[in-house]
Design a protein that fits this description.
Elements lengths: L10 H6 L5 E2 L6 E2 L3 H4 L10 E6 L4 H10 L4 E7 L3 H10 L5 E3 L2 H5 L6 E4 L6 H10 L3 E4 L7 H13 L4 E3 L7 H12 L5 E11 L19 H5 L9 H5 L11 H4 L1 H12 L6 E7 L12 E8 L2 E8 L1 E2 L14 E8 L2 E5 L4 E5 L20 H11 L7 H20 L3 E4 L4 E2 L3 H5 L14
Parallel strand pairs: 3-4, 3-6, 4-5, 6-7, 7-8, 9-12
Antiparallel strand pairs: 1-2, 9-13, 9-14, 10-11, 10-17, 11-12, 14-15, 15-16, 17-18
Helix pairs in contact: 6-7, 7-14, 8-12, 12-14
């Protein structure tokens, strides 16, 4: 077990940490690990893959179970800023894994082939970038980013360091999405002019309640948990259900959008949007959270538009996905000139526009089945060919989700130049494409 270190590192200590890329104050230059020494050796098809887990509560614990089920995986290290979580994870490896409270120390190890990043979202970009620079392949939970500049930097780090990457959008691996993509791309629906993505639930009244701020529990490094996020007092809700706070995730669009909007993006393959408009707010929520309980987004692409429709105060889902009962209701609806395709995680159906699809037959399957999202990543580590949800594939979707939150914050339509990665004609909004991390953290160029 590594000794817990204080977050308040001296400048010399911080610069000596080879897992971190730290910009020198006022210069814009970076201190990066030496690329010749950072690269891990390739994994042969018959070798075991040595994996480390960074963030091992909740989602991280589930991912750990999944990866440990494969005989060609060995877990060498676990990292968490909360000691009880760390001890529990190490115990699951029968004590074979080494424990760390600082991910940078873990990344210094040359024997680790890949890391699984399942921290709260505000840590995803930095840890993924540092891992790529340290020569590790990266499986990162969604959302990929909260700001367009983060998505760009993550992809650059992966490409510059020739790393295999995978986003944790596990639904992408299911056959149902594949069949829906094939129908949408077949032309059977006619010209698709709009795709609506729906996410409804009812958490009113009460929500996550109003827990009071307290001292952090023993064994928790709250300063390191916050990391690049704004300084806040410890609150149990922030720690256990961080998805309800804009310091760590923008809204349910960042939380569930990577799963649901992924189907629309996969089928339409539109690249990054030309323009984005968003509106919403907290109209009924009465708990400690600060994310919007209602949010609508309109993305504009060449030849079609796409919508996000969300409320946390009513679970009706437009007669698709079962009757409202307060639970989550999800749906993706492709509107074509000849018919409509409706899909969720596990089902899909086609509705004819009058009699225009009366003889509809689904196209023959053309997208091969996935061996499973985790298995795709492991196979890719050995083949050195990126899996289906690598950073490169996911970046356009991540940018679309991130821009929607900028539009919501400014109250303005965002015009986007994908080639330059800049907002057109709105300096204030353009500045919001960059994160404003708490010192000493900074996004590598």
């Amino acid at each position: 077990m590594q000794e817990k270190r204080s977050f308040e590192l001296t400048r010399r200590e911080f610069l000596k940490s080879s897992g971190a890329a730290v910009a020198l104050a006022g210069t814009g230059l970076s201190i990066l690990p030496d690329s010749s020494s950072a690269q891990t050796k390739p994994v042969s098809p018959n070798e075991k893959i040595t994996i480390a887990f960074i963030g091992i509560s909740g989602r991280g614990s589930s991912l750990m179970s999944g990866f440990m089920s494969y005989p060609d995986v060995q877990v060498a290290a676990c990292c968490d800023v909360y000691e009880p979580h760390l001890k529990a994870a190490i115990a699951r490896t029968d004590g074979r894994a080494e424990g760390y409270s600082d991910f940078r120390k873990l990344l210094e190890r040359k024997d680790i082939d890949a890391v699984v990043v399942a921290t709260p979202p505000h840590w995803h970009p930095l840890i993924s970038i540092y891992a790529c620079q340290a020569g590790k392949d990266v499986y990162c939970e969604k959302p990929m980013s909260r700001y367009p500049a983060e998505a760009k930097a993550m992809l650059k780090a992966a490409q510059d360091n020739k790393r295999i990457t995978q986003l944790g959008t596990q639904i992408h691996a299911g056959d149902n999405y594949r069949r829906a993509v094939e129908i949408a791309r077949s032309g059977a629906l006619g010209k698709i002019v709009n795709v609506r993505v729906i996410c409804t639930m009812n958490e009113y009244p009460g929500g996550i309640g109003h827990p009071a701020d307290t001292a952090p529990p023993p064994g928790l490094d709250w300063e390191m948990w916050l990391g690049p996020a704004p300084k806040r007092p410890f609150n149990e809700a922030r720690f256990t259900v961080h998805r309800y706070f804009t310091d760590y995730v923008g809204s349910w669009l960042h939380e569930l959008g990577p799963h649901i909007v992924d189907l629309a993006h996969w089928a339409m393959d539109p690249g990054e949007p030309k323009a984005v408009s968003a509106s919403g707010g907290r109209f009924a929520a009465d708990d400690i959270s600060d994310i919007p309980d209602t949010m609508d987004v309109l993305w504009e692409y060449d030849g079609f538009t796409m919508n996000w429709i969300h409320t946390s105060c009513n679970s009706y889902n437009f007669d698709f996905g079962g009757p409202p009962d307060g639970g989550r209701r999800l749906g993706v609806i492709f509107h074509g000139t000849k018919g409509t395709l409706l899909a969720d995680y596990g089902s899909h159906k086609v509705v004819s526009e009058g009699g225009r699809l009366k003889d509809f037959q689904p196209p023959a399957p053309s997208i091969p089945s996935s061996p499973g999202h985790d298995r795709e990543f492991l196979d890719a580590i050995k083949s050195r060919k990126n899996p289906s949800c690598c950073f490169e594939y996911h970046k356009p979707l991540a940018v679309a989700l991130d821009l929607a939150h900028i539009s919501l914050r400014t109250g303005r339509k965002i015009h986007w130049d994908a080639a330059s990665g800049r907002v057109i004609g709105d300096p204030e909004a353009d500045k919001m494409t960059q994160p404003n991390y708490r010192k000493p953290w900074i996004l590598p160029a």
